[in-house]
Design brief:
By secondary structure, this protein is α/β, with parallel strands linked by helices. Helix content is 40%, strand content 17%. It is globular, with a radius of gyration of 17 Å.
């Protein structure tokens, strides 16, 4: 796995500070265990290379272009590696998904998030963290998005999602349906769209703030860690789409007084890495 930090939060609108997250998530990862019960694998047996942080301009559109250029270069040089990005705010996903679309076939984006991020613009900025998925839908097709855990959105976002037939499962529905049904729905989406490459983006506010308090825009009634991690693991491990890039975004260390959000972000990356290894081996995990 190749790790890249993206310390950027220029459009943060509530609780800025996610530019500090690459450091705190790395520190957390260095101090938690690497054995995955889901995969039955000791991830210490696998190589992880840290490529450092991307230095970014402040202007959002320019930042997106630089992220795209760097991530595309890394994907091209290391075609057999999983790339893990540590944000940073959610606007970074536009640049990195654009890079995947340049390099890989038929990419799709599985998003765990409390928010749709489908506003046409936010605070007069079209490249805002609140507009990132709108830009991705416009550029690459709304059918390539699937949300898990959404529960906080503006009316215009709901209308856009319905108009464009974007698939999503709210946090309330996840609990009613259960892990297996949500995984089945995601699998049907992957088959229907014909996804060959999978990008997983985890906004840490997808988790309930009881477990992830240090985020930029916390929302109540989120998902428990075991539930979201089980879903993500099973979708990746059992999917026919090759996992290529993952990101964790929106950790805001100034509001994460106990550090548990950074720890959970590190755990999320490790479980996605474990799922990637299971997918490569063709096994089903533990």
């Amino acid at each position: 796995m190749l790790v890249i930090g993206i310390p950027y939060d220029a459009t943060s609108s509530y609780r800025p500070g996610s530019r500090f997250a690459p450091r705190t998530v790395r520190e957390a990862a260095a101090n938690i265990e690497f054995y995955s019960l889901r995969a039955g694998l000791d991830l210490e047996a696998y190589r992880v290379a840290d490529l450092g942080d991307i230095v970014l301009p402040v202007r959002p559109q320019e930042a997106v272009k630089r992220i795209e250029a760097v991530v595309a270069e890394v994907l091209g040089r290391y075609p057999g590696k999983l790339v893990a990005l540590i944000g940073g705010e959610h606007s970074i996903t536009l640049g990195s998904f654009s890079a995947v679309a340049r390099v890989e076939e038929e990419p799709c984006l599985l998003v765990a998030d409390a928010h749709f991020d489908l506003r046409d613009e936010y605070m007069e900025e079209k490249y805002s963290h609140a507009s990132v998925m709108r830009r991705i839908a416009e550029a690459y097709g709304s059918e390539r998005l699937f949300y898990i855990g959404v529960r906080a959105f503006a009316g215009e976002e709901v209308e856009y999602a319905r108009e464009k037939h974007i698939e999503y499962v709210t946090s309330h529905s996840v609990r009613l349906l259960g892990v297996r049904e949500v995984v089945a729905r995601a699998a049907r989406w992957i088959r229907r769209v014909g996804c060959k490459t999978l990008y997983v983006s985890v906004d840490m506010d997808g988790y309930d703030p009881a477990y992830a308090p240090g985020v930029a825009n916390p929302e109540p009634e989120g998902l428990e860690p075991w539930m979201l991690l089980d879903i993500l693991f099973k979708v990746v491990a059992e999917s026919g789409a090759r996992l290529r890039v993952v990101d964790v975004v929106e950790v805001s260390p100034p509001y994460d007084y106990s550090g548990i959000t950074s720890i959970l972000a590190a755990k999320t990356l490790l479980e996605l890495f474990a799922a990637y290894q299971v997918q490569k081996s063709g096994a089903r995990g533990g």
